[in-house]
Specification:
The protein is mainly α. It has helices at 2-24, 30-53, 55-58, 60-93, 100-108, 111-132, 137-153, 157-163, 168-181, 183-214, 217-256. α4 packs across α6 (111-132). This is Putative membrane protein.
């Protein structure tokens, strides 16, 4: 139990310092926003086409083909803008001023590894979906365990693609190795940032409720929807940005054994793999 609280404490420390980066460079929010818009537009278009074509009713192989396409494009879009965020964050750590256009150019330079990763992730996603679709509790449990293991192994895939020139197998082995070296901080950061994201989303929803109660009934509903959705979207964007920044900071520390800018007072060596030789110290 102590270990869980310590990881969360370090995770909140990661979230707080990631917030420093975001406050200093708020344009980083634009990247997850563009990624979300692109992803929603694609899914809405494809789902509309599938519904019109009756693919959902037909089921069978065509449904899995459609799922593959959805997973492929969604993964590529999400990975592309995540790669842009990682690249922009790395430039911040080097003391440079990041730009949206520059970050997207850097992500585009890695389009082929990102595409290969997206294909593999889409195949795995379809396999997990196929296992989960079985009317069998054992299959569902196995699919859940496989999904968790896959998420852990691929947690640092995007930073590896952006920063390393490695093979396809190297992408996965390097990602898994980095997670092993930083597992305490990674778990803590994921948990803490998820809690922070939930808090922001909750505040956004509450603002919508307050708006509904305060604004006259004629426009109260519309105003509440606008304010509430805006708050929720902003909370999700902040959470997504904090995740990308924290992940980049962890990867930089794990590979360079140096705390990046904005994280100099962070003690990364408290948890994770065997890094007793690290000289990075400071407060959590």
């Amino acid at each position: 139990m102590f270990g869980v609280f310590r990881r969360l404490k370090i995770g909140f420390g990661m979230a707080r310092r990631s917030g420093r980066v975001l406050r200093a460079h708020p344009n980083l929010l634009i990247l997850p926003l563009l990624g979300g818009i692109a992803g929603i537009a694609f899914v809405a278009t494809l789902f509309g086409a599938l519904y019109a074509g009756g693919v959902y009713d037909s089921g069978g192989a065509m449904l899995y083909v459609a799922l593959f396409v959805i997973y492929l494009v969604e993964t590529f879009v999400a990975s592309f803008f995540a790669a842009a965020l990682v690249a922009a964050t790395r430039s911040v750590f080097h003391g440079d001023e990041p730009t949206v256009a520059g970050a997207m150019r850097q992500a585009w330079d890695h389009k082929w590894p990102l595409l290969v990763w997206s294909v593999i992730a889409a195949v795995v996603g379809v396999i997990i979906q196929a296992i989960e679709s079985q009317d069998n509790i054992v299959a569902e449990v196995l699919a859940g365990l496989f999904a968790v293991a896959w998420s852990v192994m691929t947690y640092f895939v995007v930073p590896v693609i952006v920063f390393e020139d490695t093979s396809v197998t190297g992408i996965f082995s390097e990602s898994a190795r980095t997670f092993k070296d930083t597992w305490g901080e990674s778990i803590g950061a994921m948990g803490a940032i998820n809690l922070v994201t939930f808090a922001f989303v909750l505040v956004g929803a509450l603002l919508g409720v307050v708006t509904f109660l305060v604004v006259p009934s004629g426009i109260g509903v519309a105003a509440a929807v606008v304010v509430g959705l805006s708050g929720i979207v902003l909370g999700l964007l902040i959470g997504k940005s904090l995740t990308g920044i924290a992940k980049t900071a962890l990867y930089v520390y794990a590979t360079e054994q140096t705390a990046p800018e904005f994280f100099e007072d962070m003690d990364f060596s408290g948890l994770g793999g065997d890094r007793g030789s690290s000289s990075v110290g400071g407060r959590i």
